[in-house]
Amino acid sequence: MRPITGREELDLFSRLPYGLNGELADDLAAARRRPEWMWVALRDDRPLARVAWWCRPGSDTPLILDVLDIEDSTSAPDRVDIGARLLRTAMTATLPNGSRPPEYSRFVPPDWRENAVTRQAIEDRTAVVERTGGRLFVERLRLEWRPEAPVGEPTGRLAFRPIRDARELLVLMASALEGTLDAHGRDDLTRMSAREAAVKHYEDELACYASPQDWWRIATLPQGEPVGFVIPAHNGYNPIIAYIAVLPGHRGNGYIDDLLAEGTRVLAEQDVPRVRASTDLGNVPMAKAFRRAGYANFEREINMVWS
Predict the structure, then answer these.
(1) What is the DSSP string of 148-183?
(2) How far is Cα 79 from Cα 70, in angstroms, rounded to an integer?
(3) Which residues are CB-contacts of 146 (< 8 A; sequence separation ≥ 6)?
(4) Which of 27, 62, 227, 285 could staple 32 via S-S, CB 3.0–4.6 A?
(5) pLDDT at residue 12, rounded to an integer
(6) Rounded to a whole number, what is the largest CA-CA distance in the chain?
(7) Are 232 and 151 in contact (CB under 8 A)?
């Protein structure tokens, strides 16, 4: 059990299949991954398991565990045992002592529970995380809009303007957390104030995007009162709807459709091949809004955490 030596061992690391394999070389070049964060369990030079962490460029700390695979042809008890041993070993060597391990993320097919083979593979990987003290946190829908789908026409109910500055956005983000159905937002509120949660979200994610902040939009009533906001962006892989919210006092009026149409329109005007987004499986109103806007559920994401 060891980390790979460098780019020259990417072929070895990629022998176990997963959808992120095609991004690994670029991630290493962009410093989103490091060889010492990419571990393999080998038997006679054959990979039996692997794990890898991802970070934002320039960071010295892993942000998310997004690769965890085991050789599915290995016998049932052994494959989970090997995966758990590798993960424990890699975590001890990679993560700061005493720190909470980063979240685990796994992309899965939308119907993963309905296919016996796929379900077993995913349950094996979640079992590996559970063996090391992790637990299921939330399952999310991954959504995609394509240019062949229409963009909703402006209804005229709302006006849209760019965000003036980070201070204005942080006030709106903190307000939007009231009554949120987002599991990550709700979890943040158990440990910090709404203002602190907004600052954390802004600094850890939104401020890191290289795409122009003049894409970001605040929606207002005709007299200027804000009712919500939408953050179209590019995350280094895809154009995305990074954040969208209607403020508590204006929910229930269908404004989410106007906001989503505006965010999609901003990105569509950049002649993008797709727009990606995600929402919690349990956030039914948001999932319905994406569906109305022509976004298809092409994948799901399983998030697991360590307490």
Answers:
(1) TSPPPPP-SS-EEEE---HHHHHHHHHHHTTT---H
(2) 6
(3) 273, 274, 294, 296
(4) 27
(5) 97
(6) 71
(7) no
Tokens describing residue 171: 């006030």
| CA separation, residue 119 to residues 44, 79, 125, 137 (Å) | 29, 15, 10, 18
CB-based contact 198:177 (threshold 8 Å): yes
Sequence-ordered list of residues with C-beta below 8 angstroms from that of 152, at least 6 positions apart, any chain: 257, 258, 260, 261, 264, 293
HSE-up (13 A, CA, CB side) for residue 244: 25
- pLDDT at residue 206 in the model: 97
Sheet containing strand 226-234, strands side by side? 2-3, 38-43, 46-54, 64-70, 103-108, 296-306, 134-145, 275-280, 239-246, 226-234, 217-220, 159-162
The one-letter amino acid code at 225 reads E
Q: Tokens 């939007």 — which residue?
A: 176
Q: What pLDDT shows up at residue 98?
A: 80
Which phi and psi angles does 273 have, rounded to 5°? -80, -15
| Helix 166-176, helix 194-204: angle, nearest 10 | 120
- Tell me how many degrees the CA angle 76-79-84 measures, rounded to the nearest 5: 130
Q: Look up residue 205 and give its DSSP letter.
A: T
150-176 CB burial, b ≥16 within 10 A, e <16? ebeeeeeebebeebeeeeebbebbbbb
Are 168 and 217 a contacting pair, CB within 8 Å?
Answer: no
Q: Give Cβ neighbours of residue 247 (< 8 Å, ≥ 6 apart).
A: 172, 175, 176, 226, 227, 228
Handedness of CA 152, 153, 157, 161 (dihedral sign): positive
Q: What is the pLDDT of residue 58?
A: 83
- Closest by CA to 185, choosing from 201, 205, 169, 170, is 201
CB 103 within 8 A of CB 188: no
Give kind and range of the element (H or E) at residue 288.
Answer: helix 284-292
Segments of the chain scoring below 70 in pLDDT: none
* Cα atoms found within 13 Å of the Cα of residue 63, Cβ hemisphere only: 12
